[in-house]
Amino acid sequence: MPLPLLAELESFYDAVPRLDARAEVHGGLTLFVRDGEGFPYYARPTFPGGEPTAVDVRVVRERQRDLGVSQAFEWVHETTPGMLDVVEQAGFTVLRAPLLVLDGPVRVPEVDARVRVLDPEAPGFLHDVAMVRTIAQLSFSAPGTATGETGPRDRDTLLPTVTPVHVPKFRYALAEIPDHGPVATGMTQRAGDVAEVVGVGTLPSARRRGLGAAITAALAQDALDNGVARVFLSAGSEEIARVYERVGFRRVGTACIAETE
Ligand SMILES: CC(C)(COP(=O)(O)OP(=O)(O)OC[C@H]1O[C@@H](n2cnc3c(N)ncnc32)[C@H](O)[C@@H]1OP(=O)(O)O)[C@@H](O)C(=O)NCCC(=O)NCCS
């Protein structure tokens, strides 16, 4: 029998870090520790059914401090409602990110752009991965949805300094517009038949012309075409959630993220 939706997502959240990290269980929390390269992971409620306590949070923070990684916790509020209080009482500010699942067919926006999902076998793939990382870095340096000046010239300055690290669990997309080249990007990460869309970013100079939505649509359709049964994502804010809703995603909960340096 298929798992209920939130259990399905929780199972994904537990599975995906295990692809390139080891899991340490500390009571109601599981801390994922990466030995190789890449962003350090967070701790989540132990799957299934972990109910983290204040003591668990304290123990994991100490462990994160010892490991030299940021103190970071992530969970779904509807699955583990008690965790919010515990984490806030430990002094964290918690980002409440709308959690959305694709509900029905993908709605592809009409845009004046070439949107493609990268083929890992194609020539130039690693160069394109470097492009993805470059655009993501510049986009996330300008949070929110407003347009701005950062654009292709900044991208071309940064690109040669970026090392293209390809992680096999990812699929990447790029959107290119006439005369400016690639300006928007995003990725999916997959575990089993669930895929999460992450890292959607548009250079500030190219925002508000449908590219964020077009990238999301291309990645979601690519996941479905490759046998994924569930596509989901979390949005950095309510206004960003609107971009995804236009593609066919529907709000199902709140993903909580707490982090200190
Ligand atoms: C969030 C982000 C990816 C959106 O990218 P984008 O390419 O501007 O997205 P879209 O163009 O599809 O949608 C943005 C807005 O433009 C509007 N829009 C889309 N096409 C348009 C057009 N042709 N003309 C005018 N407005 C348009 C959309 O309706 C939306 O408006 P809204 O804010 O009122 O809902 C981008 O702002 C970004 O990179 N932010 C920083 C990184 C980030 O937070 N990423 C998301 C992580 S969850």
Automatic annotation (TrEMBL):
Q: Which GO terms describe its molecular function?
A: acyltransferase activity, transferring groups other than amino-acyl groups
* Domain N-acetyltransferase span(s) in chain numbering: 113-261
* Entry keyword RNA-binding: no
Keyword annotations: Transferase
- The superkingdom of the source organism is Bacteria
Entry's transmembrane regions:
none
Under the heading SUPFAM superfamilies, the entry gives: Acyl-CoA N-acyltransferases (Nat)
- What does UniProt give as the signal peptide span? none
Identify this protein by name.
Answer: Acetyltransferase (GNAT) family protein
User: Which species expresses this protein natively?
Assistant: Umezawaea tangerina
The organism's lineage is: Bacteria, Bacillati, Actinomycetota, Actinomycetes, Pseudonocardiales
